[in-house]
Model the fold of this input.
Amino acid sequence: MEPIYLDNNATTRVDPAAVEAMLPFFTEHFGNASSIHAFGSKVGQALKQARQQVQTLLGAEHDSEIIFTSCGTESDSTAILSALRAQPERNTVITTVVEHPAILSLCDWLEKEGYIVHKLKVDKKGRLDLDLYKSLLHDGVAMVSAMWANNETGTLFPVEKMAELAAAKGIMFHTDAVQAVGKIPMSLKDSKIDMLSLSGHKLHAPKGIGVLYLRRGCRFRPLLRGGHQERGRRAGTENSPSIIALGRAAELALEHLDYENTEIKRLRDKLEKGILAQVTHAFVTGDITNRLPNTCNIAFEYVEGEAILLLLNKMGIAASSGSACTSGSLEPSHVMRAMGIPYTAAHGTIRFSLSRYTTEAEINHVIEAVPPIIAQLRKLSPYWKENGPVENPEEAFAPAYA
Amino acid sequence: MWEYSDKVREHFFNPRNSGPLEAANGIGDVGSIQCGDALRLMLKVNPDTETIEDAHFQTFGCGSAIASSSALTEIIKGMSLDDALKVSNQNIADYLDGLPPEKMHCSVMGREALQAAIANYRGEKWSDDHEEGALVCKCFAVDAVLIEDVVKANNLNTVEEVTFYTKAGGGCAACHEGIEEILAKIKAERAGPGEVSPPLKPLAPKPAAAPKLTLVQRIKKIEEVLESIRPMLIRDHGDVDLVEVQGRNIYVNLKGACSGCMMEASTLGGIQQKLIEALGELVQVLPVSYMPAEA
Done:
């Protein structure tokens, strides 16, 4: 059997149509869009089209609101640093504890630089307390940055509502929508969202291309200064092949939006139910009724995630884990810890993320493959005896912790 | 992800001696909660011969934790308890053809479980004395706790000093920001909460031109300095000898793990710094290979 790829929240296969669209821009249309001659003008036209394709996917009002960047991380950094530099009288950023490191690491550094960062906590299901959020909105806040969808659990934050609350207090709102764009419908022109980050490689475009949506009229300071590319808001020669591929991928994502929310969702639900029906002491993490249609994160108690991934990989199945050992750090996923998932379960979380290339046969195969793997590892686990966890697992096995 | 050796993969996919051991008379439970690894080692020891007749494990952990546990049981089966106590974490890693630096703690956990199990058999109490922190230097597998301890114990102030004492930061240099953060944190702790930095002390009056040392006095001083450095080198399985002193050039012989180590230059640099301070003159420390053939 062909390898089964269920790690689409990490990255996606580039759509062949997107590859086809970009290839001529390496060869015959290699020109620089800034040039006055014919080599450049062809590229300029293609960039304009790609900008409109992204605009349509996001439901933005103007195509000039689309700024091409090198990746989601660049978009995130640009957004937050711009808000602070454009409003020097404001020194506070509000974000959440479950953001991607692209936001959290930046915010940690901002704190060292003397800014104030409020990180909103989440409940057991990964949800925010909006009343608390409202109480934190004040004149000193330069920007609120909250992710639209969580990369590990798929949990959606009510960013449109949050943007309205921020706007009512005159506060800029940014959302890291890297996981959400292309998976759920959005219409930015009907929202109060000021900035939004997206990343090409999460929606079947190449790696190394991202977008910062910047609402017209929102005060802005560029991260990179130089040439007049992107209207001076992001200097540097355009990555034209990737931008054109992203445009095509955005068009395809829009075409598949219904499929994503019906068929892919059905397959995801089938996978989840199929596994949970056979494996005891396992549960889905995050806000089950309000999450991305393609993402499912299951915590398998008393086993460790990297071990599960290695055995899955041996069977040709690719997924990812929130365990400490897969991240290179010693801590399990900050998202799982923020939701208060116990260590014995947090280390055993596995994320399956589907795409429009996922087939029913693949899902059936994974449903068959997972239960024996968990059983095999539980046999090795000191927390487990024949048919279930040992009684009072925390007491029965209480190692001398280093 | 990790590059595991074939041996690690093999022991993970087909672990030896897994599961409970009914006849066990020595059990060691160890783990590291942050890392999510926990290991129970069960030994069946023959009380007459004090040899390990059988060893089983149960492990909650990643691929290399399971492989390290499996390897450990294979290594110690048939060993006397005294021999088993000599098994080091490096022995376990070597048995598996090496572990990635981030995963060396898995082998440490194995060794600790072994010590704990033998202590349990002997009716002793085993207590763990090492604490593990986040990995800072990936080139030499040095964690934050070790760096903090060494910085505090030796009153270190610069990244270079940390590299000299712990090797951390001596490879790709990507962790220098992390080391600087640790230094800044400890510096802040030293200053105490709310306390402003101590007032600048007036510079100590320049020592009157130090009396010129005789050659014998210089060599004695040099030996003193080398003696003070030696324990650190020995800890890393190395050593140093003074070979010759020619004017301002001091030739030394780095031995053991120090010779050919990629840190050789920085080790020499550290020794040189200490000698300059001790002798009060500018000297150059060179490996013996630099010594002119016929002086």
